[in-house]
Amino acid sequence: MRIVERTYNSIEWWFKDSKLINYKQNNIKRYFARYVKNGYLYYSFAENIKDINNNFEKIKFYKDELPPLCPGENIQVVDTPDNLDIPAIDIEHELLIRKEDVYITHKDEEGNEQYQALSVFTLNVDFYKDDKVIPFSNSNIDLKTLIKELEEFYNLIKDLNSVKISDAEIPIIIGDTNFYDNLVSGLYGDTIEENMSWVTGTNKFDIEIKEDPTLFKPYILYDHDGLCTKRKNIVSNNVINPLYDVYFAYKYNKEPTGNGFYLDTGSPNGIGYTYLSIEAKNKINLEELDKAIYGLLFIGWHTCNWFEGLVDVKLNNGILYENGTPTGLVFSGSLKLCLSEYIPNAISIDTEINKKGIRYKPFLVLNPSPE
Amino acid sequence: MSIIEFLDKNFEVWQFWREEKNTNRLVYRNGELISKTRTNSSGIAARVNGIYYFSTNQGEDKLKEIINPGKEVSNIKLSNSKGEYITRYDVDLEEVAKEINYFLKDKNVIYELLVFKTERDYEFLNSNGARVHQKLIYNGWYLTLIKKSFGKSAELHIRSLSCLYPVKPNFEEIQEKLDILDKLVNAKMIKPQTTNLVLDPEITDLLIHEAYGHALERDLIELNDSVFSDKRPFLGEEITMYENPLESIWGFYKYDDEGFPAKKKILIENGEIKGFIEDGRYGEGGWGRKENIHHPPIPRMACTVLEPGNYSKEELIEEAKNGYLLCGFSGGQVDTKKGDFMFKSSYAFYIKNGEISDIYKGVAFGGNILTIGKKISMRSKDIIESYGGCGKNGQHVPVSSKCPYILIENVKL
Questions:
Q1: How far is B213 from chain A (nearest CA, A)?
Q2: H or E element at residue A179
Q3: What is the pLDDT of residue A319?
Q4: Span A36-49, pLDDT tens digits
Q5: Across the interface, do B74 and A201 touch by the CB < 8 Å criterion?
Q6: Residue A222 or residue A369, greater confidence
Q7: Inter-chain contact A196–B110, Cβ cutoff 8 Å?
Q8: Where are the beta strands (DSSP E) in B177-225?
Q9: In a domain, B189, yes or no
Q10: Of B25, B37, B146, which has the smallest distance from its Cβ to A307's Cβ?
Q11: Does residue B237 sit in the same domain as residue B131?
């Protein structure tokens, strides 16, 4: 029997205009056990090790045993600061700092052990200008790096004023990681095998999508199945290499790719990724565009039809660039595209963005719908 | 020393929760069981000085160890209620799933079915003498239907949810959605335009809940995150809405998570703002809700009701003359600070000369809270309850609404 012990400790500090308005601290320990017998995967979740035997469930399984545990240790934890060194920001804002520490131990029946301990800080800030919200959000193991990025973002927007864009079809640069995250969910093995992905029927992908567990810190060296994660090309030279956890890999007679990420959901299976880099083969420099809106936040991602790849979202806020120079803040616009038509001719802006576990060269949409 | 003695000894203002929450879920894809889970999120939590919230599932000693508040103190209204409310019923998840899977067998549709039951049993105490024990049982199913044909696809969602009694499969509704799905695969998209819209109760719910409801949550008002933070504008004669957790079969509770008794509250009356959704931290309480033991309560809606009008659905369609009837919701989002929103219907019917005509794919429509209500010209006399979940600050809680069909004139699609 494999046993996983997972401890999650988190602290959240909420500030409004530099004053603490909420504080939350969680300490949660959970256990997950599983084994394979007579064509079934038996598994159990419990908050207490003594309850594990009472909670077993089973689902059909497609091999006689689980793949071997990848033994080892990956410790990347940082201390919680005694004092949060919040930068002085002189426009109205709401700030959330979250620190999460996750400790996961896998043990198998042969006595192999795997231990992973990871820390990550997340910084979410809503700046308010002209009664409108401009968000900043990112994660990193190092709070100082995040604060430096925040200061750079603040310096970029603080002197910009709201500008009205009327009836012009200005190119939109997709700077919202929700787009890239949803794009990649169409490359999960189960969605492709079950005919639920936008990639069905598409055979030209002039984009490169790579996974690299060491692209950012903390490195994520093991997945929730206890396998080693690895660097790989997910899309390269028009070839897709779908991502699999153990359950869906065996179900579809494939090899697991170290992409089992599901323990947060309380499910015995599920696919995810560590860190991604995404860019189109065609690239353009921002300076080459007379005008372009760098879209920071769009609303409506979850209303899109990702099975068919139909994107229809509203621009909530963005920055207007003219010949590569930021000249104003934009709060309206819309973006509609069909992925299977767009991706074969996608263009990237030749600027590297590192945000929320995705390193991407933002995609450019030349003819968005006018607002 | 017990945790209560510890809190009493060290803090003037404290709230304490003990909770056990068990969820059983079955997930099927195209009839095959892919996940069967029994999860538990039990634990204890305390909030001290109105602001510092600590939780653990490792017992009282661990909680005492991690409670280490800073110097801030926040005003908070504390309940003094004493009471108990226990729900008792059982539901056979496998039987519900079996019936739905059997019905969908040979229907030539890709589908995912989630059947679940959650028991949430919690106890609340505070430094003002409140002692509340409540047990609620939530059950239901979510069904996603997908049809693919020659590179085209369509998707529809159906759900049935309750926290007062076991839900049954509604085969009539599933068949109705399957029939719509067949037509929807090859349906056209609606071109951008400004037109008249009749919204069905499900998408009216989205407008009432997302646009008005969230903007009336007291924490957002106080933190200047709502379009109503600094103004109380007239919102349109046709809008009279209220909150009442006791009216719902899904967003129901007898006591909120801070021990305040549930009650009815008018939010908007004939377009005038009359009240707000409040917890004890930001107001009088009654709507302080939390997803589980690891989150503090915050102001949340439970059951939001838009008062019905005097017309039939057919009269609204006739009055629209030309436009679209939008049906079902497939999501939406609102910026409460700006008042901008965007919602998407699952599908739509063209209204031609006052009559229902061709079906179209779901369409997104946007607008602003301050102006959209003034464009509502008619409401139907029939209201229907819609159910779902609502996310805010990383917490998901059950919510519902009761809404009529509404006619909105000159809306941009």
A1: 18
A2: helix A177-185
A3: 95
A4: 999 999 999 998 88
A5: no
A6: A222
A7: yes
A8: 194-199
A9: no
A10: B146
A11: no
* Same domain assignment for residues B229 and B162: no
Chain B hits for A268, Cβ within 8 Å? 35, 37
Q: Which residues have CB under 8 Å from B214's CB, separation 6+?
A: B220, B226, B301, B334, B336, B392
| A355: in domain | yes
Residues 33-72 of B with CB under 8 A from A: 33-43, 51-58, 62, 66, 69-70, 72
Residue A369 has pLDDT above 60, yes or no: no
- Residues in chain B within 8 Å Cβ distance of A331: 338
| Beta-carbon contacts below 8 Å between A and B | 146
Per-residue pLDDT reduced to its tens digit, B108-137: 999 999 999 999 999 999 999 999 999 999
Q: Are residues B140 and B273 in the same domain?
A: no
pLDDT-above-70 percentage for chain B: 100
Least-confidence region, from A172-176, A341-345, B23-27: A341-345
Residue range A283-296: mean pLDDT, rounded: 95
Within this chain, do residues B205 and B337 fall inside the same structural domain, yes or no? yes
Mutate to test the interface with B, among A307, A311, A317 (most CBs of B within 10 A): A307
Question: B158 and B140, same structural domain?
Answer: yes
Say whether residue B30 is in contact with chain A using an 8 A CB cutoff: yes
Is 70 exceeded by the pLDDT of residue A190? Answer: yes
C-alpha A183/C-alpha A167 separation (Å) is 28
Q: Residues B159-182: pLDDT tens digits? A: 999 999 999 999 999 999 999 999
Question: Is the CB of residue A324 less than 8 Å from the CB of residue A287?
Answer: yes
Last residue of a domain, one of A120, A147, A181: A120
Question: What is the total count of domains within chain A?
Answer: 2
CA distance to A198, A235, A309, B122, B183, per residue, from A187 (Å): 9, 9, 12, 41, 28
Do B121 and B28 share a structural domain? yes
Helices B171-184 and B93-104: crossing angle in degrees, nearest 10, is 40
Is residue B178 located within the same domain as residue B283? no
Q: Write down the mean pLDDT value for chain B.
A: 94
pLDDT at residue number A168: 67
Pairing of strands A358-360, A276-280: parallel
| CATH number, residue B43 | 3.30.2290.10
CATH number of the structural domain spanning residue A92: 3.30.2290.10
**In this complex, which of A25, A46, A266 lies closest to B66 when CB atoms are compared?**
A25
- What are B372-408's pLDDT values in tens digits? 999 999 999 999 999 999 999 889 999 999 999 999 9
pLDDT of residue A371: 45
Alpha-carbon distance of A218 to A215, in angstroms, equals 9
Please give the residue range of the domain that contains residue B322: 194-412
pLDDT reported for residue A92 = 80
Min distance B150 CA to chain A CA atoms (Å): 9
Q: Are residues A100 and A221 in the same domain?
A: no
The closest of A153, A126, A178 to A362, measured between CA atoms, is A178
Q: Which domain holds residue A333?
A: 162-371
One domain for residues B236 and B362: yes
**Assigned token pair, B166:** 């076991």
ipTM for this model: 0.90
Which pLDDT value is given to residue A82? 82
Q: For residue A241, what are the contacts with CB-CB under 8 A and spacing of at least 6?
A: A232, A233, A234, A235, A257
- Does A85 lie in the same domain as A11? yes
The token duo for A363 is: 């995609």
Which position has the token pair 């510890």? B6
Please determine, for residue B314, whether its predicted confidence score (pLDDT) is greater than 90: yes
Partner residue facing B331 (CB), from A46, A302, A369: A302
Q: CB within 8 A of A175, min separation 6: which ones?
A: A294, A295, A296, A318, A353, A362
Tens digit of each residue's pLDDT (9 = 90 or more) over B73-84: 999 999 999 999
Among B163, B184, B205, give the residue marking a domain's end.
B184
Single residue among B184, B210, B231 that ends a domain in this structure: B184
